[in-house]
Write a structure and sequence with these properties.
This protein is about 45% helix and about 10% strand. By secondary structure, it is an alpha/beta fold.
Length: about 675
């Protein structure tokens, strides 16, 4: 009798238990993604992810309960299949790019299918998580038809699931809103910013999708307050040789006074602009930029004035590609010009395009959009193409892959360049990837006799996938790396970079033949580190030492070399690709306002600051890991109280106001239309 009663209670409870399917199946999939992408489950984000996931899960149960009994299973299968697909797409995307896909990038899906080999590689590397993500939809397909018939009455189910949806969402919002502990708080991440990796880590994939849609379709300016002045620092870049600084004095000769340098600023009255602005957002921007400490001119100001400049963003380049034997030209440029020993190439959200944006604009990309394309209608006053064109230079840009990929046909002319790419003025052999060497052979004759010139290149030979079967540049140099004690992927990567090296060899040879070598500066940095390699291959390239995937994986090389430099200048100050534009602007003696750029002239006395896409940062005092919310001081360094929080506020403002510069066309406001 007792057994019969228990059985009856279970049968009565079953209809209500079916309402738990979506909350728990979605939570399973969230945890699979979290573990696969971040390698951990137990952190502060687990609570927020669970709350938001349960709110969404009960909402989906509510939707399915509204269908007639015969259609509930089909509806549940459709919803579960759609959500499972999005989880799988994000898992594969992260496996390839180490970031998450945003809605805006779906518009480029057709172009992205050119890289189907990379997609297959990502699927293979994420095979186990993908199988785990399929478990709920498989179970629903096998057992769900019978369970769907057990749903409670439609009105009762709707009332319960609707109430639970609201309750969990309100609790989640309250929990996030009250989370004010830490250097970067969950409250800031949810309400005041959009950082895809941190958002997924803290709130889950589906909550991030909602935040992504909010910022894409309902863009709002981040609330800003009157910023406090951030004073400059007298801490200099450490350089050698010492002769670059004022020298000592002879006996009985009065010591020479050190030169006094002015600031790299323009005549802009930000206070008057702020007072006269009708738009509160513009007024806040004027106050912010007016409060920023400018960088000072220095002994290197104008060092390259009047020279030609060739600026190269090299696909997948890294410090591991610089080798005396394999890549002698890269080694020559890296060893005999400016030597930046602590240079970083952060990985941003739209990989190559955002890498270009940072190097060319000294602004932080806006997550969720293609920032360089979005800038195509703005006044990009400080881009080097526009700066040099105002100086009377001829300015050209080249890309040896599809000319309108990522809409470069819009962005690059707007940066001040006469632009050519494959399929539009640049005749190179359409292989995958295309040859950097061939691009140099074809293009250098177009400008080498047109001095003074500034030329910008976006290369492609170093692009993944790093195998000898799916990469024509790797196959081309396969025999030259056959002797290396490395796996195929590491060897194929180096083989790709050898094509870049040969391209630079050709470039230097043509400059020399034309009598322009000593009058030309070559600057080269990567778009991002070679994320197409597994960590085991990165470790091989790193001499067998394990690569720190939080910070040191972004440590790279910035080649800055002139044909007439007699001795190298070594700089050990932490710096990044964000600093390239102001550094070159100062070296070429261009008029620019350092307050309006997010990077800093590396050779100035400004304090070091390297910013990563997830708001982590590196300074001369230590490192802040935004994923763990921990600041680690450098060994033997004393850090003032509140230092990390103060730096984090500055970094957050850099992100927020970079976004505003893009959305408000701020340079157009200051300097007029294009």
């Amino acid at each position: 009798m007792k057994h019969a009663k228990n059985h009856s209670r279970i049968r009565a409870a079953l209809p209500w238990l079916t309402l738990l399917w979506f909350p728990f199946s979605l939570l399973w999939q969230e945890l699979v993604v979290k573990l696969a992408c971040f390698g951990r489950l137990w952190d502060r984000g687990l609570l927020y992810t669970s709350l938001f996931t349960f709110a969404l899960g009960f909402f989906l149960s509510l939707l399915c309960s509204l269908f007639p009994p015969r259609r509930r299973w089909a509806a549940a299968m459709a919803v579960s299949g759609l959500f499972t697909l999005w989880y799988m797409v994000q898992t594969v995307y992260y496996a390839i790019f180490k970031t998450f896909l945003v809605l805006y990038s779906l518009s480029g899906t057709g172009q992205a299918m050119q890289f189907w080999r990379d997609i297959l590689s990502g699927i293979r590397s994420a095979a186990f998580p993908l199988l785990a993500l399929l478990v709920p939809v498989v179970l629903l397909g096998v057992f769900g038809r019978r369970a769907a018939r057990l749903f409670p009455a439609r009105k009762k189910a709707a009332a319960l699931t609707g109430s639970l949806t609201a309750a969990f969402h309100v609790i989640a919002l309250a929990a996030v809103g009250l989370s004010t502990r830490g250097v970067i708080t969950p409250r800031y991440l949810y309400f005041d910013s959009f950082v895809p990796n941190l958002s997924v880590s803290n709130f889950g994939v589906m909550a991030t999708l909602r935040l992504d849609a909010r910022q894409l379709f309902l863009p709002q300016a981040r609330a800003v307050v009157q910023p406090e002045e951030t004073p400059g620092s007298s801490a200099p870049a450490t350089t050698s040789p010492e002769s670059t600084a004022p020298s000592g004095t002879e006996e009985n000769v009065p010591p020479e006074q050190p030169p006094v340098y002015g600031d790299n600023v323009m005549d802009i009255d930000f206070a008057a602009l702020a007072a006269g602005a009708d738009d509160p957002a513009l007024s806040a921007m004027h106050r912010y930029f007016g409060s920023r400490a400018p960088t000072r001119k220095n002994a290197y100001t104008g060092m390259f004035q009047g020279k030609n400049l060739i600026l190269i963003t090299a696909e997948g380049f890294s410090r591991w590609a610089v080798d005396k034997e394999l890549t002698p030209t890269l080694y020559r440029l890296a060893d005999s010009g400016f030597v930046f020993e602590n240079f970083y190439n952060p990985l941003w959200w739209v990989s190559t395009l955002d890498g270009e944006y940072v190097a060319c604009t000294s602004l932080i990309p806006t997550p969720g959009v293609w920032s360089l394309y979005r800038s195509g209608d703005n006044n990009m006053f400080f881009c080097l193409g526009n700066q040099f064109r105002r100086q009377g230079y001829s300015t050209r840009a080249y890309h040896n892959h599809t000319w309108n990929y990522y809409s470069r046909d819009v962005s690059h002319p707007n940066m001040g360049y006469d632009y050519k790419g494959l399929g539009h003025g640049l005749e190179v052999t359409p292989t995958w990837p295309e040859s950097d060497l061939e691009m140099m052979e074809v293009t250098v004759p177009e400008f080498v006799g047109d001095a003074p010139f500034h030329t910008y290149y976006m290369t492609v030979s170093g692009h993944m996938n790093y195998t000898f079967t799916g990469n024509s540049m790797a196959a081309k140099h396969k025999d030259e790396v056959a002797h290396l004690d490395m796996g195929e992927n590491a060897r194929a990567y180096l083989a790709c970079q050898m094509e870049l090296d040969r391209a630079l060899e050709s470039l230097i040879g043509q400059l020399d033949k034309a009598g322009q070598l000593e009058n030309t500066v070559i600057a080269l940095s990567a778009d991002h580190y070679p994320y197409g390699l597994e960590q085991s291959a990165l470790n091989e390239l790193n001499g067998g030492r394990e690569v720190d995937m939080r910070f040191d994986v972004y440590r790279s090389a910035f080649l800055l070399w002139s044909g007439d430099m007699e001795e190298p200048v070594v700089v050990d100050k932490p710096c990044s690709s964000l600093d390239i534009l102001p550094t070159l602007s100062n070296l070429f003696g261009l008029e620019y306002d350092s307050r309006l750029l997010m990077g800093r002239d590396i050779l100035s006395d400004s304090r070091a600051l390297v910013v990563l896409s997830d708001h982590s940062f590196i300074t001369d005092l230590g490192r802040y890991d935004a994923q763990a919310d921990v600041f680690t001081p450098n060994e033997g360094v004393s850090v003032p109280d509140g230092y990390a929080a103060d730096q984090a506020r500055q970094v957050n403002d850099m992100f927020a106001y970079s976004k505003q510069v893009l959305e408000q066309d701020y340079y157009g406001v200051l300097f007029g239309g294009r």
